[in-house]
């Protein structure tokens, strides 16, 4: 496992985001052991309408120091490869996200062009939703067929659901509510990490 954990959400009101507060919260999470920040720049409920979004966002994200740009394949079905190419040209890694209703077959042809596949374990939209265990076969399939691929899960992931994610083969964990609402973020992050690290080698045998 290279990395795990942490989500920091910037919703549709990104223009109104208090960046100094975002910085403070992000630093706190990193100090508490998170390996990376996963920033949602748009509310997932807008996913079907964002065909115009990527050309606007890719360059500024790269300029801001983002190292991986993940996008949902559903609204850009005819442009996935060209978006992958633009992201790479901008110097970032490529992540491809799947909504719960999207099967693995929709992404298979693109996996070799991606650094990471994100399996959403809730409907995109907001934090605090119930983890969808029925998404785990997608993670298992990916891990089985792509032992070295980064596989991320996002939605309802916390201490009660991390086992399922880790055993299925996820190595990048987005956890919002479970960390943010905890009085001991460091302990929660450490526990999530330990669960993932103790499972990951079993997935690769
Ligand atoms: O962006 C999301 C949905 O659109 C994430 O699932 C969510 O923000 C993660 O938080 P939580 O751990 O509370 O589910």
UniProtKB/TrEMBL annotation:
Reactions it catalyzes: D-ribulose 5-phosphate = D-xylulose 5-phosphate
Species of provenance: Exocentrus adspersus
Keyword annotations: Carbohydrate metabolism, Iron, Isomerase, Manganese, Metal-binding, Zinc
Needed cofactors: Mn(2+); Zn(2+); Fe(2+)
Record SUPFAM superfamilies: Ribulose-phoshate binding barrel
A GO biological process held by the record: carbohydrate derivative metabolic process
EC assignment: 5.1.3.1
InterPro entries xref list: Aldolase_TIM (IPR013785), Ribul_P_3_epim-like (IPR000056), RibuloseP-bd_barrel (IPR011060)
Record family assignment: Belongs to the ribulose-phosphate 3-epimerase family.
Function of the protein: Catalyzes the reversible epimerization of D-ribulose 5-phosphate to D-xylulose 5-phosphate.
Record's subunit section: Homodimer.
Pfam families: Ribul_P_3_epim (PF00834)
Protein name, per record: ribulose-phosphate 3-epimerase
GO MF, one example: D-ribulose-phosphate 3-epimerase activity
């Amino acid at each position: 496992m290279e990395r795990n954990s942490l989500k920091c959400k910037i919703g549709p009101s990104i223009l109104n985001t208090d960046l100094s507060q975002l910085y403070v919260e992000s630093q706190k999470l990193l100090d508490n052991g998170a390996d990376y920040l996963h920033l949602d720049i748009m509310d997932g409920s807008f996913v079907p309408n964002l065909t115009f979004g990527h050309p606007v966002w890719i360059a500024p994200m790269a300029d801001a120091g983002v190292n991986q740009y993940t996008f949902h394949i559903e609204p850009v079905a005819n442009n996935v490869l060209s978006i992958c190419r633009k992201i790479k040209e901008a110097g970032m890694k490529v992540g491809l996200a799947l909504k719960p209703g999207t099967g693995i077959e929709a992404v298979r042809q693109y996996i070799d062009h991606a650094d990471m596949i994100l399996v959403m374990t809730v409907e995109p939209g907001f934090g605090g939703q119930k983890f969808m265990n029925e998404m785990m076969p997608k993670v298992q399939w990916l891990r089985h067929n792509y032992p070295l691929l980064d596989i991320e899960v996002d939605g309802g992931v916390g201490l009660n659901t991390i086992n399922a994610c880790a055993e299925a083969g996820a190595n990048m964990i987005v956890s919002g509510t479970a960390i943010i609402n905890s009085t001991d973020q460091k302990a929660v992050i450490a526990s999530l990490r330990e669960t993932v690290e103790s499972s990951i080698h079993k997935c690769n045998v």
